[in-house]
Specification:
Blueprint lengths: L13 E7 L6 E4 L5 E4 L11 E5 L2 E4 L20 E6 L4 E6 L14 E6 L4 E7 L11 E7 L7 E6 L7 E6 L5 E4 L15 E2 L2 E2 L1 E3 L5 E3 L4 E6 L5 E6 L4 E6 H5 L5 H4 L3 E6 L6 E3 L5 E5 L4 E5 L5 E6 L6 E6 L4 E6 L19 E7 L9
Antiparallel strand pairs: 1-28, 2-3, 3-4, 4-5, 6-7, 7-8, 8-9, 10-11, 11-12, 12-13, 14-15, 16-17, 18-19, 19-20, 20-21, 22-23, 23-24, 24-25, 26-27, 27-28
Length: 364
């Protein structure tokens, strides 16, 4: 018998929740009653519905198939290409519609934040954006909420543009008014010196015609502290973690040029897509370069809690009241746009979970 050599150690007890054999998912959210919602942006796969609920091991269009069919005559009431879904713990599912299939310029009037009542499964309110908020380069990515400020609360949305300025979009949920903050700031922009390496290979845009370019994507991951006072965020192509006071974000008397003084740097946490916060203020973040999940404690200490070869690009995170961390694994880095037009993804994509023993951070 030939002697074996030492190999890399993997750890963290992952549980499989669901296998996806159809379109590639990006988002997941678990409601306070345990309902699971998934979204499928239109990036080239055959997306039959862009928002789904998982019921008895099957996916159903949510809140209805009609809502998931693009109606050119009423685009504000139909989902176009949804990137993120977030259950707020108060009976509402929030749907963030990029209105930008295949990363196109957002369809005019189509980019929106939609509140769906989980009791009636009906759309309660739709927030659309003006042209100075959703730019031709904007890609609405993820959203967090705080209902303790203002008359109806505030939402914070990341613009993860790959062609224009990154930003955090602040939305007053009472008036519907929205504005961009940290627009094009260093903290919301791609790290120009960062070269991501996934599965041992440099991740670059590689088109069918042989052209290559660096992969650059702005602020993506976002998480909010349990008291709503601090917003954590990170560009997708960066290993750095930042935070800012939400009060400073909302205060428009602070000009954007001075807002960077309010940004706090937390150090390198690995390159992350999704992030989430638990009730004790611990931030959970993926590390797509190292097939890992990491947590950042309120004192700044960082720890890897899972390292597994099945974590092939951890995307969106959600914490359930069952004290599990749920996350999508979707092999984003194997898409054809990174491999000269050849799709290297292998189905199924997966929804995994990891017991963390903590509750989700409240938004109210």
């Amino acid at each position: 018998m030939k002697p074996t050599l030492p190999i890399e150690e993997y750890f963290g007890h992952l549980e499989l929740v669901y296998r996806f054999y159809g379109a590639m998912p990006t988002g997941v959210s678990v409601s306070e009653t345990g309902r699971i919602f998934i979204c499928f942006p239109k990036w080239g796969d055959d997306v039959k519905f862009t928002v789904a609920e998982m019921v008895d091991g099957k996916l159903f269009p949510y809140p209805s198939l009609e809502t998931n069919l693009v109606n050119p005559g009423n685009i504000t009431m139909s989902f176009i290409s949804v990137q993120s879904v977030v259950a707020d713990g108060m009976g509402t599912l929030w749907v963030l519609d990029t209105a930008a299939p295949n990363f196109s310029e957002p369809i005019k009037g189509g980019a929106k934040l939609v509140a769906v009542d989980l009791k009636t499964n009906a759309i309660r309110k739709v927030y659309t954006f003006t042209e100075d908020v959703v730019l031709p380069t904007t890609y609405l990515n993820d959203v967090r909420f705080d209902f303790r400020v203002g008359k109806a609360g505030y939402a914070y949305i990341t613009d993860s543009s790959s062609k224009g300025p990154g930003a955090i979009i602040v939305v007053d949920l009472e008036s519907g008014g929205a504005f961009r903050r940290l627009n094009g700031a260093k903290s919301t922009s791609p790290d120009p010196y960062f070269l991501p390496k996934v599965e041992g290979v440099l991740l670059m845009n590689r088109s069918k015609d042989g052209r290559t370019s660096h992969y650059r994507t702005a602020v993506d991951g976002i998480a909010i502290s349990p008291d709503g006072k601090k917003l954590f965020f990170c560009p997708l192509t960066s290993r750095h973690l930042f935070s800012i006071s939400t009060e400073a974000l909302r205060d428009r008397t602070i000009p954007d040029i001075d807002l960077f003084y309010h940004v706090e740097y937390w150090g390198e946490k690995g390159a992350s897509d999704g992030m989430i916060t638990d009730a004790k203020g611990t931030v959970y973040a993926g590390d797509y370069e190292n097939n890992s999940i990491r947590k950042i404690l309120p004192n700044g200490k960082m720890e890897t809690i899972a390292h597994d070869p099945r974590i092939l690009w951890p995307d969106t995170f959600s914490i359930g009241t069952d004290q599990y961390l749920y996350f999508i694994v979707n092999q984003l880095h194997r898409q054809a746009r990174f491999h000269y037009g050849k799709d290297l993804r292998q189905k199924p994509y997966s929804l995994l979970r990891l017991k963390i023993g903590e509750l989700p951070a409240p938004a109210f």
